[in-house]
Write a structure and sequence with these properties.
The protein is an alpha/beta fold and 435 residues long. It has 16 helices and 15 strands. A seven-stranded mixed sheet has the order 4-10-9-8-7-5-6, sandwiched between helices. The structure holds pyridoxal-5'-phosphate.
């Protein structure tokens, strides 16, 4: 295919490298993509951690097509359509008990900023408008909008963009290779990293802090699994000081760790859950924020004809997204996908950890159907070794993702054991060739 690649400025991409040697997908089905030159590529990362039920599931495709023909759009402000309510109900049945109100957005980034705004406004409507401080974590990824990069902790995503939000602070990340390298599942050491929050409470006074946001499993920064007891400890400190706890489950939501949400896997219930990606199986952009009843109810005061929360998007609860979301949740239920990672995680972990001992492999981390393989960087060229491995795997018919010098794997939850073997064996070969 000859095509002019000039006009499109690609997101999070090495544009010049890509345009010299483009990688184009033109078709997808089940566990696979097909390239423009007809090669089949195994999807080792569920598109971008979103296509949890695999590609082109007929029920979802049909729901989107039917909805587009029946009603393409309906305004979400002061109007609605039935599928928005149906999807909110369906999502609330999956979230931990108590998180039963759902607000819709179009992406993870928008959901993060929505949750942060909800937290600030919640305190204000309760007469605690002095709680304005937001706490994030080093190495956190919460999308690319200003709220998300402010509480986020990935340097490259922050350093170009000025002062960002005021009044933000960060706790330390939990990555501790000296004590936890090659942990299978949750690392043993590091619950005490949560005590950083106590330190920030002492520094700023808890009455100034509105919310803490963390990814239960930090994904984009290289798959950092929470140490045992860490999230429980964060929950305790938040409770002690009246601080809201937000879990960003954009990656971990919808079955990635073996339950609908990681909150259930780790047995810790936050006050708000941020979601996106798997909500529609990646088919139509959509995000959401699930909140506790009490947070929602705090807004429901004042004259009934007035808007309670001045926030929303033109495409909040878009009919195509709602149709895709409903069909996605039905597909997950029919195929048992939201708990399937529990059956496969042992096999996946064993396959992944068989890479230990290969040249330059300095750590392997996993939980559910997500895994990270960290490599030592090429001297003076951070991220290059992993990027070369990504290119090599792609040539060999497997799509992986790399972040820095970590290979991240997060296959669709429909993956079969032979495909786990293919994925890991291809990565093995590429690591050996990159040595
Ligand atoms: C934890 C987390 N939060 C937020 C986002 C941002 O989502 P989006 O790219 O849909 O804006 C991502 C995307 O990968 C994510 O992993």
């Amino acid at each position: 295919m000859t095509q002019d690649l000039d006009a499109y400025w690609m997101p999070f991409t090495a544009n010049r490298q890509f345009k010299k040697s483009p990688r184009l997908f033109v078709k997808a089905s089940g566990m696979h993509f097909w390239t423009d030159d007809g090669r089949q590529v195994l999807d080792g990362i569920a598109g971008l951690w979103c296509v949890n039920a695999g590609h082109a599931r007929p029920r979802i495709v049909q729901a989107i097509a039917e909805q587009a023909a029946e009603m393409d759009y309906a305004p979400p402000f002061q109007m609605a359509h039935p599928k928005a309510f149906a999807l909110a109900e369906a999502v609330a049945r999956l979230t931990p008990a108590g998180l039963n109100k759902v607000f819709f957005t179009n992406s993870g980034s928008e959901s993060v900023d929505t949750a942060l705004k909800m937290a600030l406004a919640y305190h204000r409507v309760r007469g605690e408008g002095h709680r304005t401080r937001l706490i994030g974590r080093e190495r956190g990824y919460h999308g690319v909008n200003f709220g998300g990069i402010s509480v986020g902790g990935m340097v490259a995503n922050r350093k170009m963009f000025g002062a960002m939000l005021a009044g933000v602070d960060h706790i330390r990340h939990t990555h501790d290779p000296a004590r936890n390298s090659f942990s299978v599942g949750q690392p043993e050491h590091g619950a005490e990293f949560a005590d950083d929050l106590e330190k920030l409470c002492a520094l700023h006074d808890p009455s100034t802090i509105a919310a803490v946001i963390v990814e239960p499993v930090a994904g984009s920064t290289g798959v950092l699994v929470p140490p045992k007891g860490y999230l429980n400890r964060l929950r305790e400190i938040c409770d002690k000081h009246g601080i809201l706890l937000i879990f960003d489950e954009v990656i971990t939501g919808f079955g990635r760790t073996g339950n609908p949400f990681a909150a259930q896997t780790f047995g810790v219930t936050p006050d708000l859950i941020v979601m996106a990606k798997g909500l529609t199986n990646g088919c139509v952009p959509m995000g959401g924020v699930a909140v506790k009843q009490s947070i929602h109810d705090a807004f429901m005061t004042g004259p009934e004809h007035l808007i309670e929360f001045f926030h929303g998007y033109t495409y909040s609860s878009h009919p195509l997204a709602c149709a895709a979301g409903l069909a996605t949740l039905e597909t997950y239920a029919e195929d048992g996908l939201l708990t399937r990672a529990q059956q496969l995680q042992g096999y996946f972990a064993e396959a992944l950890h068989s890479l230990k001992g290969l040249p330059n492999v300095i750590d392997i981390r996993n939980i559910g159907l997500v895994g990270g393989v960290e490599l030592s960087a090429l001297p003076g060229e951070p991220a290059k070794r992993a990027f070369n491995i990504f290119l090599d795997c792609y040539e060999k018919g497997v799509l992986i993702r790399t972040t820095g010098d970590t290979i991240a794997l997060s296959p669709p939850l429909i993956i079969e054991r032979e495909q786990i073997d293919q994925l890991v064996d291809t990565v093995r070969g590429a690591i050996q060739r990159a040595a």
